[in-house]
């Protein structure tokens, strides 16, 4: 609810549509490079339950490149990214890659589970909470959706994206980390 209210208020003030929470213009031809390994901070660990009720920790993914995505079912730019993430999961999973989605929907599984089924999401999704939001949102929580963290095989944050970026930008970063 807080995201929808903030999004709608911002959209009204800027004279924009409230369809998505964050949307920025992007160019497909931009070359993206992740942070140098020496400047990467450890990704905070957390434990949650996925849509099947199974507990997991982010630390379980050490040794894999992880795209950790904070999203919501009502977020327009999130709807754009989800098919990309489905493709990434399918195309890169055998190379040591995983997508982990953290839903910040206020309605919880009631909203999220039907959405997962409709979109045929093939990656792990869990519900976020304020503890996880504070870990990844600098103590105040995730302020914009979508927000994605690219985490290297050593469990360190290689890059952060707030808002919508192009599919090719994600691909370039993932290819760099998966080599």
Averaged pLDDT: 86
Low-confidence segments, given as residue ranges, are 1-31
CATH superfamily: Glutaredoxin
Query: N-to-C SSE series?
Result: HEEEEHEHEHEEH
Report the helical percentage.
Answer: 25-40%
CATH class: Alpha Beta
Tell me the total number of β-strands.
8
Task: Label the structural class.
Answer: alpha/beta
Q: What's the architecture in CATH terms? A: 3-Layer(aba) Sandwich
| Terminus-to-terminus distance | 40 Å
Write down the CATH topology.
Glutaredoxin
Number of helices: 5
Per the principal axes of the C-alpha atoms, what is the gross shape? globular
Q: How large, in whole angstroms, is the Cα Rg?
A: 16 Å
Can you describe what's shown?
The chain is of the alpha/beta class and 179 residues long. The chain has a single domain (2-178), classed as Glutaredoxin, CATH 3.40.30. It contains five helices and eight strands, in the order αββββαβαβαββα. The strands form two sheets. It has a six-stranded mixed sheet with strand order 1-8-7-4-5-6. It has a two-stranded antiparallel sheet with strand order 2-3. It is globular. The model is unreliable at 1-31 (pLDDT under 50).
